[in-house]
Specification:
Blueprint (H helix, E strand, L loop, with lengths): L21 E9 L5 H12 L5 E3 L6 E11 H10 L10 E11 L7 E8 L1 H16 L13 E7 L5 H12 L1 H10 L3 E3 L1 E8 L6 E9 L2
Antiparallel strand pairs: 1-3, 1-8, 2-6, 4-5, 4-7, 5-6, 8-9
Length: 215
Amino acid sequence: MPRERRKITKERPVDPDSVEAQWRLFVAVDFPESRRAVLDELLDTVRATDLPFRWIGANAAHLTLHFIGDVPVETAELLRLAFSSAAVGTHPFSLKVDGAGAFPNLNKPQIVWLGLAGDIASLRRLHRASETFLLGFDIVTEQREFKPHITLGRARQPLQSPEINALVSLMRSDLVQARLTELAEPFRIDHLTLYRSHLSHEGATYEPLATARFG
């Protein structure tokens, strides 16, 4: 008796706008629009190299406070509706760009970042306040040390010694240092944003869902 063939079916991917879809969320402090032109000039400089990095666009620059990850649409909607209270008791404060570096370090660069300085104490209080807000929705975020930074690019592949040397030279170049000096003027932080991340082969795009204003 011939063996019965099993019918193989392919499941259709979930429509990202359907009720079954999950939304990939994070909470962030936005990089100020007034500095994005200078940041774009810095990014143009690093993009002009052939280093194997996926560099961000200036409009996507942000400081992630909490990566939430994938949540059901219903949870995302509840967060969106309540998000205006995510920074209760927070008042505006100032930060500034403080150099650039890489994680885990410049000898094994996986992520290139801008450092931050200024009122870091207020930033840490904001980090804790927004964490408490998320816990109210049973959302536990990554329990790692909070290292304030703005990601500029991620390595597409492990770098070899010549590429690492080229990256170090680039970061120390007069042109990059001049742009970092321009970015070092303090800027005001007065709101927090809930974002949805859309992933694609071209990279991630970020959709603002809600804002929590300070004070």
